[in-house]
Design brief:
The chain has 14 helices and eleven strands. By secondary structure, the protein is of the alpha+beta class. Strands 1, 2, 3, 4, 5, 6, 7, 8, 9, 10 and 11 form an eleven-stranded mixed beta sheet that branches. Helix 2 packs parallel to helix 11. The radius of gyration is 36 Å and the shape is elongated.
């Protein structure tokens, strides 16, 4: 008796016939792979796109910002035990920073050590804040002209105070957008005044936004020389210098700033450079990729379980067909190959559709967010193969089970 043979052409024809004869079940079986592979491609594409956007945003601002902390400037930080407030930044901090090659703007700022200041548009400080007459919850900040410029403020109206006001210790101020709204001040051409515990300050400008030190939008900013003369050195929190550098100069400036400001005792100051943008971007990319890959793997497992379950049900439904094939001479390996081919074909087709869906999701999201879509080849090209492997693995057990069905048992059912 001649042994039966199943050529590749016959195998594919049988598998295709099995899929086409039950289109509804084939589509539902394939849906798991579509979702799994689609999620795989989408999450990797969105991760690459979002990481690129994060890196771009980071490099725009953070990579040009250096801060210098006063390590001994708090109220008891002078080591003398007197508790006297002091500041270790020199009076000419702005000029010293400006002499460093690579500094665009820089200066010193701090929160004025004035507990519970009553900031009011009227001189009557006895009026309680919160009743429409004042800004008891507003903060008072001191900043040198260099620090103001380093903040990169956007003026709603008016202008910034300058070195002239700084040298003379003028009682002028800037109001943040929230403070101006609370105090009811919308224009400065009539030279409005704001009173801090009864001391008048002429409002020269209103800030609508700042790139650095956003907390100043919630309060009032006065020249640092005026703050020192009127309220003394920082007490509750030390002063800090903020420096806006030219692109690529931040790390160099961070190494030079303390010595340039205090050549006699540079250890009193600590410059903090921006974190390495490449390391940060890589870390963000790694974290997001790891998280989303886990989610994609879960989707693939769910899809594989769906294929395995549906294929197993198909084996039970087609027991009579399997018995007939075995009775006509089909060997167990032929039955195994047929069911494996069907499940692998479903997985590959689901992988192709899932890849298309994932790419569409990435492109649509990027367009909606005005981002640049980034799709790495390693995330897109192997996706259909991953679907085929998932289908093959999911169909392995049902195919082996189908191969063990004896013809006589199958025909008796």
């Amino acid at each position: 008796m001649r042994a039966t043979r199943l050529t590749l052409r016959d195998l594919f024809a049988e598998a295709l016939a099995g899929l086409v004869q039950r289109p509804g079940r084939s589509v539902l079986t394939m849906l798991g792979t579509v979702l799994g592979v689609g999620a795989f491609v989408a999450v990797l594409g969105l991760t690459s796109t979002a990481t690129g956007q994060i890196g771009k945003s980071f490099s725009l601002l953070q990579d040009t910002t250096v801060t210098v902390d006063d390590l001994g400037g708090a109220s008891t930080g002078d080591g003398t035990g007197t508790g006297r407030a002091r500041m270790d930044f020199p009076p000419d901090t702005d000029a010293r920073l400006a002499r460093l090659n690579g500094v665009a703007d820089g200066g010193v700022w701090w929160t004025v050590p004035l507990r519970n200041p009553v900031i009011s548009p009227r001189a009557d400080v006895t009026v309680e804040p919160g009743n429409g007459s004042g800004g008891g919850d507003l903060a008072l900040f001191a900043a040198s002209p260099g620090a103001l410029r380093a903040m990169q403020p956007t003026l709603a109206t008016g202008r910034l105070y300058n070195d002239f006001h700084q040298r003379r210790g003028e009682h002028v101020c800037l109001l943040g957008s929230s403070a101006a709204r609370l105090l009811g001040i919308t224009r400065v051409d009539n030279r409005p005044a704001v009173f801090v515990n009864g001391t008048a300050y002429t409002v020269v400008g209103l800030l609508s936004d700042v790139q650095r030190l956003p907390q100043t939008l919630l309060g009032m900013v006065i020249p640092s020389s005026t703050a020192l003369n009127t309220y003394g050195a920082p007490a509750d929190s030390p002063a800090q210098a903020v420096i806006r550098t030219r692109p690529g100069a931040a790390r160099l400036i961070a190494r030079q700033a303390a010595t340039a400001l205090r050549p006699d005792r540079p250890e009193l100051l600590k410059a903090v450079p921006p974190p390495d943008p490449h390391a940060l971007r890589d870390q963000v990319s790694t974290d997001l990729s790891g998280l989303f890959l886990v989610l994609a793997a879960i989707c693939l497992v769910v899809g594989a379980v769906g294929i395995a379950n549906t294929t197993l049900v198909a084996v039970l439904e087609r027991t009579g067909e399997i018995g007939l094939r075995r009775a006509l001479g089909a060997r167990p390996r032929h039955i195994t190959a047929q069911f494996l081919t069907e499940s692998t074909a479903l997985g590959a087709l689901g992988g192709l559709i899932g890849t298309s869906v994932g790419v569409a999701v990435v492109v649509a999201t990027a367009l909606a967010r005005h981002w640049t879509a980034v799709l790495e080849p390693y995330a897109v090209l192997p996706a259909p193969l991953i679907g085929a492997l998932v289908g093959f693995a999911a169909g392995l057990y049902p195919a082996l089970r189908a191969a063990r069905i004896e013809p006589l048992d199958a025909l008796r059912r």
